[in-house]
Write a structure and sequence with these properties.
This protein is of the alpha/beta class and 265 residues long. The chain has one domain (2-263): Rossmann fold. It has helices spanning 71-84, 97-108, 128-141, 147-154, 165-175, 179-190, 195-198, 218-227, 243-246, 248-263; strands spanning 2-6, 9-16, 24-28, 50-54, 90-95, 113-119, 205-210, 232-236. It has an eight-stranded mixed sheet, with helices on both faces. Helix 2 links the parallel strand 5 (90-95) and strand 6. Helix 1 packs across helix 2 and helix 3 packs antiparallel against helix 6. One of its GO terms (biological process) is beta-ketoadipate pathway. One of its GO terms (cellular component) is membrane. Keywords: Hydrolase. It is an enzyme of class 3 (hydrolase).
Length: 265
């Protein structure tokens, strides 16, 4: 485990180094999760990339900071981390809110971004009313009061089998998430709208949707892809909002194919 102080927040991160000549692939996790969601994907890519994972502020082992947040708060943490590690022209894979962070990072610092995988995300996610209702519900009843509803959006019924230990592990991850970090990031998502910014993206982009995603359905991901000139769009079957957990082999294969066949050529 590695830690760095960026402004007023300590960020937890890990770097897996293939060798000094390999391109850098950065993973940004979703709301209510931490960098462990990439656990089954990393071994499938670590021979070919230097991989950076980290916990957003308010998540995992990173500091809470001062919620509520903006997407720019999360972007400043990412940019500070990349500058600290002297990394530039990286590939970024952002899942859900991670995709919003990736889009804004490109807008602010295009020199840092060589290509993007925008996974289970969109240019705008939900409505202010929806996010305000979720924030209020969690402030009243805690994250535990919404776990079943959130899990139904994150995972397919097959994965949510009570006998699936991995499913229980992801429930634990969400329930143990600091409520203030969760609602603080809900506010960031609520206030983010990159409809215009998405149309100005000029690096290669792969947009990934989960067939049964209840948080960012395929049609929403498709609408983002349609805004981005030249963006590719792919659906992972038999997966929902967290395909890196449900279908890590298919997920890694899409990333590898995109980065080696469509970006490197």
């Amino acid at each position: 485990m590695q830690f760095v102080r960026i402004s007023d927040v300590t960020i937890h991160y890990d770097v897996t180094v293939a060798d000094s000549g390999k391109p850098v692939l950065v993973f940004i996790n979703s709301l209510g999760t931490d960098s462990r969601i990439w656990h089954h994907v990393l071994p499938k890519l670590s021979d070919d990339f230097t991989i950076l994972t980290f916990d957003k502020r308010g998540h995992g082992l990173s500091d809470l900071g001062t919620p509520p947040y903006s997407i720019d708060d999360h972007v400043s943490d990412l940019v500070g981390l990349l500058d600290h590690l002297e990394m530039a022209e990286v590939f970024i894979c952002g899942l859900s809110v991670g995709g919003l962070i990736a889009q804004r990072a490109y807008e602010r610092r295009p020199d840092l971004v060589r290509a993007m995988i925008l996974s289970n995300t969109a240019h705008k996610i939900g409505t202010p009313e929806m996010w305000n209702q979720r924030i209020s519900a969690i402030e009243t009843g805690g994250i535990a009061s919404m776990v079943d509803d959130i899990m139904a959006k994150w995972f397919t019924p097959e994965f949510r089998d009570p006998g699936n230990a991995a499913y229980q592990g992801y429930r634990n991850m969400l329930q143990r998430q600091p409520a203030a970090g969760y609602t603080g990031t809900c506010a960031a998502i609520r206030d983010a709208d990159f409809t215009e910014a998405a149309q100005k993206i000029a690096v290669p982009v792969l947009c990934i949707a989960g067939e049964h995603d209840g948080s960012t359905p395929p049609a929403l991901v498709r609408s983002m892809a349609d805004l981005i000139d030249g963006a590719q769009y792919r659906i992972i079957e038999d997966a929902a909002h967290i395909p890196c957990a449900e279908a890590p082999a298919a997920y890694a294969a899409l990333i590898r194919s995109f980065l080696f066949n469509d970006v490197e050529d």
